[in-house]
Amino acid sequence: MLASLATLTDIVQQRDPRIVLDVKLSKPVLRIGKDALDLSIKSSHDGYIYLVLLGSDRKSFYVLYPNGLDKDNRIKAGQTRKLPRPDWQLEAAGPPGIDHLLVMVASSPRQIDRLAMTAPSATNPFTFALNEIGGRAALINFLVHNKEGEGSERFGAKLLTLKEVL
Fold it and tell me: pTM of the entire structure?
């Protein structure tokens, strides 16, 4: 379980400090089956937003955004993006505990098929990587390398915690 959080922490430590993210959660505590995730993101630079969740069950990392329902993850410098958008929502589903949410704005798009065997779709919108050595390595590779896979790319990142309660 500690390796899971360490993976996200390692990614945050590789961020470019010049890319500043202002991320606000509407509620840091979500009631399971009642409350939905709601956040706003503002970036100091143009880029592409990525949201990765390590849920309270610690079994998998989920790429929440972009997803099969909403693929346009571009953001302009100074623009505020509210997520999730109205056409897709993320209700707290448990189990009770702490979720870790990585919010990242990358200077260039990432290649989602590096992480998943199948592309996200409307029926299965969220891509995931298992919380094991191969899954963690795939997640890091997906997030820190650009679409062509030519080395590290600039990105800003923040790690947030959410609490899911009954």
Answer: 0.91
